[in-house]
Amino acid sequence: MQKQSERSVVEQPLVYKLIENIEKVVVGKGKEIELSLIALLSGGHVLLEDVPGVGKTMMVRAIARSIGGEFKRIQFTPDLLPSDVTGVSVFSQKTMEFHFRPGPVMANIVLADEINRTSPKTQAALLEALEEGSVTTDGETRIIQQPFLVMATQNPIEYGGTYPLPEAQLDRFLFKFRIGYPTKSEELEVLNRVEKQHPIETLFPVIELDELLEMKKQVKTIFVNENVKQYIINIVSETRHHPAVFLGASPRASIALMKAGQAYAFMQDRDYVIPDDIKYLAPYILQHRLILNSESKLSNASTGRVIEEVLELVGIPTGKERAQ
């Protein structure tokens, strides 16, 4: 079995071009960039939780510029209204009709910045967009143009002035992970790059939106063997029976594991998913979907440790995963 650290070499040519371009701006975060592109290719969304200033916003902007997509930023504040996110109908005295003015969520790449600083009502305005890829205003449903990726950032919940995201909304994010501080050498590289001009200003698209959409179609054709599907189900089911867990992962987590596995296999230039793909992705997909019971919280248990125990307990299937 390959080690996790050895499983981040991307071989798919177009994806490699994307990662190489994004790394001109984002230093030392290859794994985080890779996970973000998995979400983009599989139709999922990302929740980044970290302290301010570690490059969350810059990574989202670099992804948007690299694919040439429309980029919008929503700065979540306590007074933000749902219509500020989804859009609003405005009456025109010239035509004597209402015209819909799209909100910032109707873009290809959306940065939902500090999402846990706004009220739950406004947070909920994102639910339909995250799950259905559409917004409904004034009784009319409007489809958001593909590709569509929301990358939400939030400060750690112990920071003042934050509203923890409800479980229903957390469940709609494919991944949750941290960016983390750079090493000293990486931070020096950042200083050298921005000394005269920020590299984001000279970043250009390396693929067309049509190419990206074609890649998304190819991802859906990646073969998933029945043994691999059963492995996914066994992992998710085990989270529901773990003694430290109050609420385990839902069937949406099983779907997320399969779709992310297809995207990851595609990035590795494979036409089939292997169990190691699922094992590698599981911590990033499951950690924000589990709720620990009171006893476990008092003993300082973590969802990360629970997932490690689940992966150790569930046997890895053997046999051929390639389509026959």
Automatic annotation (TrEMBL):
Taxonomic classification: Bacteria, Bacillati, Bacillota, Bacilli, Bacillales
Pfam family, one: AAA_3
A molecular-function term among this protein's GO annotations: ATP hydrolysis activity
Keyword Nucleotide-binding: yes
Organism annotation: Salipaludibacillus neizhouensis
Keyword ATP-binding: yes
Name of the protein in its database record: AAA family ATPase
Protein family (similarity comment): Belongs to the MoxR family.
Record keywords: ATP-binding, Nucleotide-binding
Matches recorded under PANTHER family: METHANOL DEHYDROGENASE REGULATOR, MOXR FAMILY PROTEIN
UniProt-listed SUPFAM superfamilies: P-loop containing nucleoside triphosphate hydrolases
InterPro entries cross-referenced by the UniProt entry: ATPase_AAA-3 (IPR011703), CbbQ/NirQ/NorQ/GpvN (IPR050764), ChlI/MoxR_AAA_lid (IPR041628), P-loop_NTPase (IPR027417)
